Amino acid sequence: EEQLLESGGGLVQPGGSLRLSCAVSGFTFASHGMSWVRQAPGKGLEWVSSITGSGGRTYSADSVKGRFTISRDNSKNTLYMQMTSLRVDDTAIYYCAKLAYGYSYGPVDYWGQGTLVTVSS
Amino acid sequence: DIQMTQSPSSLSASVGDRVTISCRASQSISSYLSWYQHKPGKAPKLLIYAASTLRTGVPSRFRGSGSGTDFTLTISSLQPEDSATYYCQQTSSTPPNTFGQGTKLEI
């Protein structure tokens, strides 16, 4: 059974940094693209960033480009999101998402439970 | 960027009713569209992919249709557990894989 477990969320001041992790099990990690999707309080789902199964290609939303970096360690079955220059409007639940295919796009067939990031002074 | 516009933003219906949610893409995405169900405090769930393919295990009362720029999610014979927010997402190779703004369904 596919499992995705996020960690690393918490309270951080504006301008600060945070690294999210997503440990996965139950599937061949390197064969699937992965994404981060967030939901700000009272708002809808927002695609943040994606990475191919090999890790060779990444894409990020304009709202986080240059500040967030998605990466993966296929030897550790773990997805990461390095978040820098955090802003108040980055406050959200961040979901780790498994893509159905090895590409950096496609339907999300499994989701983690999410980790809350709060940016506040 | 491809914009995804859902309508309505919310709707209320009764058990046994049939409802339709629309999703429009700002440019053609062929059939690269998925639908998700999201309940508060839970992880979203994939219902339909490739515009009309029902994911294994999803009840057959959920049906997706459309291609190009106009898509529809139809839920027939509504059940109390269908109360949720529904999102469409364009899943083509053209990033970003944008979500619609969501449709909150109250039963």
Written description of the protein model:
The complex is a heterodimer of chains A (121) and B (107). Chain A has 121 residues and is mainly β. Helix content of chain A is 0%, strand content 50%. In chain A, the strands form two sheets. In chain A, strands 2, 4, 5, 6, 9, 10 and 11 form a seven-stranded mixed β-sheet that branches. In chain A, strands 1-3-8-7 form a four-stranded antiparallel β-sheet, with no helix packed on it. Chain A is globular. In chain B, strand 7 and strand 8 form a beta hairpin. The mean pLDDT of chain B is 96.
Compact summary:
The complex is a heterodimer of chains A (about 120) and B (about 110). With about 120 residues, chain A is mainly beta.
In N-to-C order, the SSE pattern of chain B is: EEEEEEEEEE
- Main pleated-sheet profile of chain B: 6 strands, mixed
**Rg value of chain A:** 13 Å
Low-confidence stretches of chain B: none
Search tags:
heterodimer, A: 121 residues, mainly beta, four-stranded antiparallel β-sheet, 0% helix, globular, B: 107 residues, six-stranded mixed β-sheet, 10 strands
Secondary structure layout plus pairing:
The complex is a heterodimer of chains A (121) and B (107).
Chain A: E1 3-7, E2 10-12, E3 18-25, E4 34-39, E5 45-51, E6 58-60, E7 68-73, E8 78-83, E9 92-99, E10 108-111, E11 115-119
Parallel strand pairs in A: 2-11
Antiparallel strand pairs in A: 1-3, 3-8, 4-5, 4-9, 5-6, 7-8, 9-10, 9-11
Chain B: E1 4-7, E2 10-12, E3 19-25, E4 33-38, E5 45-49, E6 53-54, E7 62-67, E8 70-75, E9 84-90, E10 103-106
Parallel strand pairs in B: 2-10
Antiparallel strand pairs in B: 1-3, 3-8, 4-5, 4-9, 5-6, 7-8, 9-10
